[in-house]
Write a structure and sequence with these properties.
Length: about 375
Amino acid sequence: MTVLQSRTAIGEDMSQIRIAITGVGNCASSLIQGIFYYKDAKAGDVIPGLMHPDLGGYRISDIVPVAAFDIDKRKVGIDLSKAIFAKPNCTLIFQKDIPNLGVEVKKAPVLDGFAPHMQDFQEDVTFSIDKNQKPVNIVDELKKSKADILINYLPVGSEEAVRHLAQCCLDAGVAMINCMPVFIATDPAWENKFKDKNLPIIGDDIKSEVGATIVHRTLAKLFSDRGIKIKHTYQLNFGGNTDFSNMLSRERLKSKKKSKTQSVQSSLPTPLEPENIHIGPSDYVPWLKDRKIAFIRLEGEKFGGAPIELELKLSVEDSPNSAGCVIDAIRCCKLALDRKTGGALLSSSSYFMKSPPQQFPDTLAREMLEQFIKSERER
């Protein structure tokens, strides 16, 4: 008996949020683990990384995976509950007990979702593709599963594949949460397509609970608010998961660098000249696995022209760092579906994403989002 069947059998409220996932990697693993780790959470509980255990009437346990897509032969054809622990996934396992979900991982079209240089890596740290496995029709699978929302976890640089998924969502009548930096919600043409279909989209490029970008934004704003003129800043990131090995290709890195850079620049009253700001993934260190290390430096000028310098090192388990944000984004997206609100959700996108259609200070974005949760107003 699947989780969905068991919920029906005991007569539980069927106000579910049916999610489909593309890219069953470390982030998907942390998300699914978190759904079961906090399945008994109730209103009033304090849960790290979540705005509210009960958000707009939806609990964590209301989130039900109903479809999943990947290209790795070790994941395709097996239940999602097993696929989230298959190689090359290497994230922290904090919830081992995941019941059979009755959700078979289906083969997605590869398109540009796989970087050619990764063929030179050892199989246990990169994708393993069986060309004899035929891809499914994503639109048909979304309709068949009756998914409400598709969550995009494809690798950085998958420009063609993400646009294909966005069109699949439109054709299947499914909302979208775009967790990676291919600009869909931020692109007026795509945003209008979702608005015309009356489908919500949250994007682009998920922020972490406390990650390098949110810390860098906060420090840059602190300097600015206290009257310090920032002259130079950088953010250098290292990690050992497939995301970092994928980003060794500088060509695939363009959108990620743009997303992270504009997120920090937006917190400044006057953007820095390009030569004075450097932000982006820097290297792949296999033994770090899903651990991410970020070095942040700001150099500025204060009263009397006196110099000030700040250096910070942040070390986090990368994938769990965003899972709570995605759980909140899922529930906000479902509220928009319930309210028949289409297009890019500005408050949700600004709070949860690095590159929303419109940037707001993080404190204001939080206030806007709380207002959206409490009422039907988007702004």
